[in-house]
Amino acid sequence: MEDCNMESLYERCMKVMPPVVKRATTMGVTKGEGCYLWSEDGRKILDFASGVAVCNLGHNHPKVVDAAEKQMKELIHGGHNVVYYESYVRLAERLVELTGGDTMVYFSNSGAEANEGAIKLAKYVTKRPGIIAFRGSFHGRTLATTSLTSSSSAYRKNYEGLLPSVYFAEYPYLYRTPYEMKDGKCPKEYFEQFENIFHTLIDPSMVAAIMMEPVQGEGGYIVPDKEFVQYVREICDKYGILLIFDEVQSGMGRTGKLFAYEHFGVKPDILTSAKGIANGFPLSAVIGKKEIMEQWPAGAHGGTFGGNPVACAAANAVLDELTDGGMLDNAAKMGDYFKEKLFALQKKYPSVIGDVRGLGLMLAMEMVHPDKTPDADITTAIRTKALEKGLLLLGCGTNHNIVRFIAPTIVTEKEIDIAINIIDECLKELTE
Ligand code: PMP
Which InterPro entries does the UniProt record give (predicted)? Predict the structure, then answer.
């Protein structure tokens, strides 16, 4: 036993878990508080990964801890297949109110599970088979959500033979567009391609839903053109297709608004939320227009753990902090501050930082070679060096060349300055 404890958590993990659990770092952690994690070797690490956009209020937020603790003493599990309970109903009531009052909510446990639910709901209600997703998308790791995921072929390899009738449209990734851009406007080709899908691949009357991340996450923190998002809404209205926004990563305050769709003036028919919704407890939600949700009858979908009382109590505390606690405003304000600092870094290192982009605290810099080709090596090197210097960062992007910054909404200018200084040092060392 003692020998075993000499090993790191990572080494012990590798003995009992398959390599599929290998991820961004080999760091073991013992504690989290606010914007910081403590590594098993006693280092205090500034965490700008937030468990991949989960701990949007920082680690172990006291109000979340209190709410969960109180709920745990009353009821840990009721089973939403069996009974109803206050934290679950209250959370749904609040989410309905916050999404305009004309919605209904179904709870599950993870982002992928919410997206599965949304896909099933769209198929159930429209009685159509087709789904259109986007190039660069990430919707989860279950078979149906893998079918709609195209940010890396590694996610699909050896799993092919996925859900049929899935088609991919171009996402307007304007930094790398092959089309001509006039006056900074989204090229017309992105609009035309939809009609092309309908002319060549599937008749629109056979399409149940278009599933879209309003800001693409794993694909590279890409903010789409507003007009394009509005056009997708129009396409849906024209053909009776349901618009599903996957807000698993972009939602719950990440972009400085509760949901990213608010930036585009476009409402989806169905929205999925997870990750940050309960600040670390497994919870997700399908939030759909009332007239659609009302057509989903008892027995058509379900699950044992969805809407767990403790997770829902935590989520109610999250909503309190984001709205009344002012954290949405802080995310917007700190996001602007952070982005300005990143633009300043781009000015300092123009040959390697090709692009700085994002909304609120969903920010990224795209790393390039001087000829603008993607530079995955420097991206990895920045992340490795930054962690050595006490800052945890993640990468993303189809070409693995995006450094993403997922600071919690409680972040202060001081912590952003610390992070910027570390990134500056890393870039200095790497470009010298
Ligand atoms: N959708 C998006 C946009 C995501 O970013 C993710 C996770 N990275 C998922 C779905 C899947 O969520 P989960 O891992 O909770 O299943």
Answer: Aminotrans_3, Aminotrans_3_PPA_site, Class-III_PLP-dep_AT, PyrdxlP-dep_Trfase, PyrdxlP-dep_Trfase_major, PyrdxlP-dep_Trfase_small
| Model ipTM value | 0.99
Structure tokens at 107: 């709870």
The helix (run of H) or strand (run of E) holding residue 237 is helix 226-239
Q: In the CATH scheme, what architecture does the domain 63-324 have?
A: 3-Layer(aba) Sandwich (3.40)
Distance between CA atoms of residues 214 and 407, nearest Å: 19
Global pTM value? 0.97
Ligand 1-lining residues (CB < 6 angstroms): 52, 110-112, 115, 138-140, 213, 217-218, 246, 248-249, 274
Helix 188-200 vs helix 226-239: crossing angle, to nearest 10:
30
Each residue of 33-83: pLDDT tens digit? Answer: 999 999 999 999 999 999 999 999 999 999 999 999 999 999 999 988 899
Task: Give tens-digit pLDDT for 83-128.
Answer: 999 999 999 999 999 999 999 999 999 999 999 999 999 999 999 9
Q: Which atom of ligand 1 is nearest to the CA of 115?
A: 10
- 39: tokens are 């590594």
Q: Would you say how long the chain is, in residues?
A: 432
Q: What is the dihedral of CA 187, 227, 274, 155, to 10 degrees?
A: -10
Pairwise CA distance, residues 311 & 284, whole Å: 9
